[in-house]
């Protein structure tokens, strides 16, 4: 098993090194300097190997640190419950939700495909050795931060030591359940394609994590200890199930080769998304348009792809409306909750930057535009002319803004209403600040993602995302949005600043897009 792990680790590292070199080669300016024989350069490969090892080490700790800090520790300040119990409560329920979405075992990755399907490595030895390695990394990565942050909030040391083990036990239990399910149904489930039941359970656990403390309900150390003992028993049993399972080859052959999985005959995730999108296209002969030119072309596209473009937005809007109703009812029922909500609305507006980031459909819409339209149209010279590109850009911007404004408008109307119901404010401008800042955020993200798409067009002819620069900008957008959660500013001041920023950014971005999009909007090789 050790030999299998060493071989698999070398394989994964080689794949990562080549990916690093490829990413470097895709960075503007640098790609013009570096030769095509880059992969043969030994010095660069050594540097890439060092970067790969550093990535592995950083990967052990960084994600766990951000998770405990942002998802748990920083959230404690919005509650008036016991800090130690609230930390324990949120950690406990988020762990259950995370275990459902990330088992480590049922993730169909390319290194597994190469190792088991191409190199014909022993599937059980490969799977178990890598699975154990990831569980060990999980404990090592979590332990320093559960101890540091746990002690900071007042948890006993022995409890902070149990938390990483609890995470591992939860993952073992879900992994064993999936194996049992495979033995029963003969169907392997990819963790990249969660079922509706899984998403529902995750939503419930997230709601329990953050909702119950708002109602002054949290688990204490005694309850956690009971849950830990139960998880430990389940974990030990699950470990035995996973260790004794002998059909890993059959399971992964199905997981890695079915058309709804990640890799098969060079089929990528983007190709799978494309196939799913094609199934949702509505070819109705009655769909027509009274417009002409670019507007006519775009309106037909929107009508035929309405499911892809608006289905998720309608669901988002329904959920948001439901949450607002629940919060309003809770405010009338509980005076303390009412006071807390009013205080949050007057000082936590920056938090909504991340919420609007999550709700924004920019990535999905631009992806649909490329896969179902631009992928083919960009092969025609006339489609790449400045007049056509800018004409379609204007129509698409209107559409994307209108799509994102549906859930945004519910929030923009709901927040001032909620502020009024929970006690109001001495400054009437706070109501306007809440409304217009949410609208501004929605428009900002719409402009941001469409401009990104036109300036950095990340897809190649095989509809695979190949732009390192695009990924970097995506990562920065996510990081800045996350960072806003930590900011606490008066609603009026932050709202005005956000509105001004969004207007200025949008105008500058649109100017840059109009100037450079005709040169940058093209198919990647």
Name the overall outline: globular
How far apart the termini lie comes to 40 Å
Query: What's the gyration radius in Å?
Result: 25 Å
Total count of strands = 0
SS strand fraction: under 5%
The share of residues in helices is over 70%
Q: Tell me the count of domains.
A: 2
Give helix and strand order, one letter per element, not per position.
Answer: HHHHHHHHHHHHHHHHHHHH
In round numbers, the mean pLDDT is 82
Question: Segments where pLDDT lies below 50 for 5+ residues?
Answer: 258-269
Given the helix and strand composition, which structural class is it? mainly alpha
Give me the oligomer status.
Answer: single chain
Question: In words, what does this structure look like?
Answer:
The protein is built from 20 helices and no strands. It folds into 2 domains: 62-257, no CATH class; 311-520, no CATH class. α3 packs across α6 (123-153), α5 crosses α10 and α15 packs across α18 (429-456). Mean pLDDT is 82; it is low at 258-269. The chain is mostly helical and 525 residues long. The radius of gyration is 25 Å and the shape is globular. 76% of the residues lie in helices and 0% in strands.
């Amino acid at each position: 098993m050790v030999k299998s792990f060493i071989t698999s680790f070398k394989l994964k590292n080689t794949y990562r090194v080549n990916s690093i070199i490829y990413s470097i080669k895709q960075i503007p300016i640098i790609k013009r300097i570096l030769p095509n024989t880059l992969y043969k350069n030994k010095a660069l490969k050594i540097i890439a190997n060092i970067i790969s090892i550093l990535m592995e080490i950083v990967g052990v700790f960084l994600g766990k640190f951000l998770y405990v800090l942002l998802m748990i520790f920083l959230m404690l300040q919005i509650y008036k419950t016991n800090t130690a119990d609230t930390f324990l409560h949120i950690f406990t329920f988020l762990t259950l939700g995370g275990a459902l979405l990330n088992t480590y075992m049922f993730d169909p990755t390319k290194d597994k495909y190469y190792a088991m399907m191409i190199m014909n490595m022993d599937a059980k030895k490969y799977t178990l050795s890598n699975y154990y390695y990831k569980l060990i990394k999980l404990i090592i990565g979590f332990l320093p931060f559960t101890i540091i942050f746990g002690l900071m909030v007042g948890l006993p040391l022995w409890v902070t030591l149990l938390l990483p083990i609890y995470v591992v036990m939860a993952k073992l239990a879900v992994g064993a359940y999936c194996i049992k399910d495979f033995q029963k149904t003969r169907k392997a489930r990819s963790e990249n394609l969660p079922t509706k039941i899984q998403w529902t359970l995750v939503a419930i656990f997230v709601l329990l994590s953050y909702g119950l403390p708002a109602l002054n309900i949290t688990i204490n150390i005694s309850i956690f200890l009971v849950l830990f003992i139960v998880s430990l028993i389940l974990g030990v049993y699950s470990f035995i199930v996973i260790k004794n399972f002998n059909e890993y080859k059959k399971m992964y052959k199905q997981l890695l080769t079915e058309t709804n999985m990640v890799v098969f005959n060079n089929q990528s995730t983007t190709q799978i998304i494309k196939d799913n999108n094609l199934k949702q296209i509505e070819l109705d002969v009655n769909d027509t348009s009274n417009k002409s030119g670019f507007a006519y072309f775009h309106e037909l596209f929107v009508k035929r792809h309405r499911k892809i473009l608006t289905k998720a937005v309608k669901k988002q809007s329904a959920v948001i409306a439901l949450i607002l109703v629940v919060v309003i009812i809770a405010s009338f029922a509980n005076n303390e909750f009412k006071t807390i909500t009013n205080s949050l609305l007057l000082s936590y507006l920056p938090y909504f930057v991340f919420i609007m980031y999550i709700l924004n459909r920019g990535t999905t819409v631009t992806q649909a535009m490329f896969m179902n339209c631009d992928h083919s149209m960009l092969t025609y010279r006339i489609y790449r002319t400045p007049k056509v590109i800018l004409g379609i850009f204007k129509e698409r911007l209107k559409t994307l803004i209108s799509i994102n404004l549906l859930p945004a408008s519910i929030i923009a109307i709901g927040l001032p209403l909620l502020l009024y119901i929970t006690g109001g404010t001495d400054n009437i401008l706070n109501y306007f600040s809440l409304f217009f800042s949410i609208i501004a955020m929605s428009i900002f993200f719409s402009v941001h993602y469409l401009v990104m798409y036109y300036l950095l067009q990340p897809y190649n002819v095989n509809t695979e995302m190949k732009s390192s620069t695009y990924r970097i900008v995506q990562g920065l957008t996510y990081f800045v949005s996350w960072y806003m959660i930590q900011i606490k500013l008066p609603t009026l001041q932050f709202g005005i600043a956000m509105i001004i920023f969004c207007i200025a950014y949008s105008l500058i971005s649109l100017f840059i897009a109009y100037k450079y999009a005709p040169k940058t909007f093209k198919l990647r090789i």
